[in-house]
Write a structure and sequence with these properties.
single chain, alpha/beta, 20 strands, 28% helix
């Protein structure tokens, strides 16, 4: 006798109520918690009820398909698109399906789903009925006899999905690839180009905290194939490259570069704040249009353009090339680093590793080094008794406003802080907080010390402690004080400047101008600031930030 029929005989005797699934392989009785970005491929088994959190409709999610979705899609994003999930979140039934071709893109319920030519697996969604979020046994009033009780099976825990690949943490770049899909390259060489891209993508090792890769095809008009955040796992990215379809047409690479610069790196398209931007352009032969204007916009936008030219024009073809210096005009800098010639598509394998190393060379990406994402800023904060608790909070607000102007990240700008009286206290170092939010929170939470004022000793302490690991040429110390120092400031300030630290002095209330000028870097007038009231500090933020950026640009 089966367990089911055995229980059907027992139920009238016990007064127990059981919720029994009607069919094998149907939706799980208990909802499986997921996040807004959990994809169909991440679910451990078929037939699960995914429990989506609130506000997924407001998150940037990747969805591919309509009604039937590619498994790389966000489950909750697809549910919003399907119209079975609202802002409050909730359970969604997920059924895994085979892969297919031609997923249709559409716009529905505030979510834009993208078209996809093919994917290896799919899923469909349904709104589940009466799904309990947990099981209880409070309704049981009579126990089964021991002999009649079925053997107790331990609850099967949902299998934990494999950890997502973090990727190469030494290459945290946002990389847009513009590839040649013109008549010039043809079908055969287009497939060789795809093979080369697959090897390069494998060498880059994409991942959640590694490089992100997006791709645009250059033809008559640029065509975005996938954005930076669509495929952040190696297998998915390789499959997407494999599925690229040849377009034909002219080699309008300039249009493709302009399209990438204007649309590809914004946060709405998956660009990460503070991460270096790289644009790798592949050209077979030569472009049909002008590259100079698009490349100029790329440089002004902090994007590092690499140009990989394969099969350069033969001497008899040079007359057809509209601009023989197109490589020099396209790249970030015409110094040899950003241009990479390859003789033929049949000999690309040996070039994969050196090209990947170039794309990941953070210190040599000259076009991404703006003051906003490259400076190290140390705040030296007067915590003496004359400041007072209320005014000290105004100082912290001022520092937070300055910090907010920069792209603080583990690959971008850095913020650190020291508070001083007669003593010095390292509040946090340049490498303690890897993002802007954490750095600003740490600034606002600095507790007030109270005591005397020894600014000179504090400058020496900060030079030795805060900047000991930071590279020269981009280090800035902003000293904020409200009174006269009890020790000498000239020698410590001169020593700091000798070590490559640019000093800005910000005086408030009774701070003597002579001390402020003695600490400041040259020219004194542009590195010395003063406000009679603490409430006036906010007005100093814009000129101070402009000064830092001016110094950085001139020194780099």
């Amino acid at each position: 006798m089966s367990h089911l029929s055995h229980l059907s005989h027992l139920l009238p005797l016990t007064g127990l109520f059981f919720l029994i699934s009607s069919t094998s392989g149907s939706e799980s009785a208990v909802a499986y918690p997921v996040t807004c970005v959990t994809r169909g491929t991440d679910l451990p088994e078929d037939g699960l009820v995914a429990l989506c959190p609130p506000d997924c409709s407001r998150r940037k999610v990747s969805v591919f398909g309509t009604e039937i979705y590619a498994s790389v899609s966000s489950v909750c994003g697809a549910a919003v698109h399907r119209g079975i999930l609202g802002r409050a979140g909730g359970p969604v039934g997920v059924h895994k399906l085979q892969g297919r071709r031609d997923y249709e893109g559409s716009y529905a319920h505030g979510v834009r789903s993208l078209a996809l030519s093919r994917w290896s697996a799919s899923f469909s969604l349904a709104k589940p009925v009466n799904v309990p979020l947990e099981l209880t046994s409070d309704t049981s009033t009579t126990t089964l006899p021991a002999a009649a009780r079925p053997a107790k099976n331990p609850l099967k825990k949902p299998s934990v999905k494999k950890a997502l690949t973090a990727g190469n943490k030494d290459c945290q770049m946002d990389i847009a690839m513009v590839i040649d899909s013109s008549n010039n390259i043809g079908h055969r060489r287009f497939n060789l180009q795809k093979n080369f891209l697959s090897k390069l993508a494998a060498m880059l090792r994409v991942g959640s905290t590694g490089p992100h890769v997006g791709l645009i095809q250059a033809s008559d008009s640029p065509r975005t194939e996938f954005l930076l955040t669509n495929y952040t796992q190696p297998k998915e990215l390789l499959f997407a490259i494999k599925e690229l379809v040849y377009l034909g047409g002219d080699t309008n690479t300039g249009k493709a570069i302009m399209h990438a610069v204007e649309t590809f790196f914004g946060q709405d398209s998956g660009g990460r704040r503070g991460h270096p931007r790289v644009l790798m352009v592949l050209i077979d032969g030569w472009p049909s249009d002008d590259l100079e204007q698009a490349a100029m916009l790329a440089r002004e936008s902090g994007i590092n353009v690499f140009l990989v030219s394969v099969a350069k024009p033969a001497p008899e073809e040079l007359a057809m090339v509209r601009d023989k210096d197109f490589v020099k005009k396209a790249v970030c800098r015409d110094n040899g680093f950003f241009s990479y010639p390859i003789p033929s598509w049949f000999s690309t394998t040996k070039h994969v590793k050196p090209l990947a190393q170039k794309l990941c060379s953070l210190d040599r990406l000259l076009c991404s080094k703006t003051c906003y994402n490259s400076v190290n800023i140390g705040f030296l904060v007067d915590g003496s008794s004359s400041v007072g608790g209320g005014n000290f909070q105004l100082v912290l607000d001022f520092l937070a406003a300055v910090a907010s102007s920069f792209e603080v990240s583990d690959v971008g700008a850095r913020i650190g802080a020291v508070q001083f009286t007669y003593d010095q206290r390292l509040e946090f170092g340049l490498f303690d907080h890897p993002n802007k939010e954490d750095s600003i929170t740490a600034l606002r939470r600095i507790p007030y010390m109270s005591g005397g004022t020894a600014t000179g000793a504090a400058i020496s302490y900060t030079t030795q402690t805060l900047f000991r690991r930071a590279g020269p040429g981009r280090n800035f110390l902003i000293v904020v004080t409200d009174g006269q120092s009890y020790d000498d400031v000239r020698l410590p300030a001169a020593a700091a400047q000798t070590q490559g630290i640019t000093i800005y002095s910000v005086g408030v209330a009774w701070a003597p101008l002579d001390d402020l000028r003695a600490m400041s870097s040259e020219p004194k007038e542009s590195h010395t600031f003063f406000s009679r009231e603490f409430t006036g500090l906010a007005e100093l933020v814009p000129p101070l930030v402009r000064g830092v950026c001016k110094d950085f640009t001139e020194n780099n």
